[in-house]
Amino acid sequence: MKKALAVAFLCAIFAGFVAAQTIELDLDGTPGNGPDVVPAAVSDYINVDVYINGTGMLFSANFTICNLDGSLEFQGYAYNTPWTNTPPVVTPPCVLIQATDFTFGSPLAMPFLHGTATYHAAVDASLDDLTIDLANSGWFNDQFLSGAFSDFVGGSVQIGSSATEQTNWGAVKDLFR
Prior knowledge:
Elements: H1 2-15, E1 22-26, E2 36-40, E3 45-53, E4 57-66, E5 72-79, E6 84-91, E7 94-100, E8 108-109, E9 112-121, E10 126-132, E11 138-141, E12 146-147, E13 151-153, E14 155-159, H2 161-175
Parallel strand pairs: 1-13, 2-14
Antiparallel strand pairs: 1-3, 3-9, 4-7, 4-8, 4-10, 4-11, 5-9, 6-7, 10-14, 11-12
């Protein structure tokens, strides 16, 4: 009897667990190898692909991208989902991105590309971090469960002369490998 109760208790606990859903900000075009650090010159435009990772299928993925350093100016977001996409809500230094399938007919299997954010490099000689505000981010899945994203992989943009120096120095080091 005690074993049966223990098994029932453990099954009830594990039934309530949902797989962790995470976000990756990919700056180098190769998802899964982050966090990325990319060089940029002043006035360059930087594309940031946003991947949703985890298991299962989602009907909604909403998140807040932040650039606390402020040297990158948000330019726009190109959605890659068939869902209803809300225009980004910009509240510097962050931007809220929202997309939901209100018909519940087109869940997306993870991992998937949610969309691409574009930033403008505005200030010379800075290292800017892009992060996700997990407290203002969440998902809704095909099991009608919801929650906050559990983690993220961010990225950094090195703007200006030091970015060029690093790129040139990397080329010199490659000569001697």
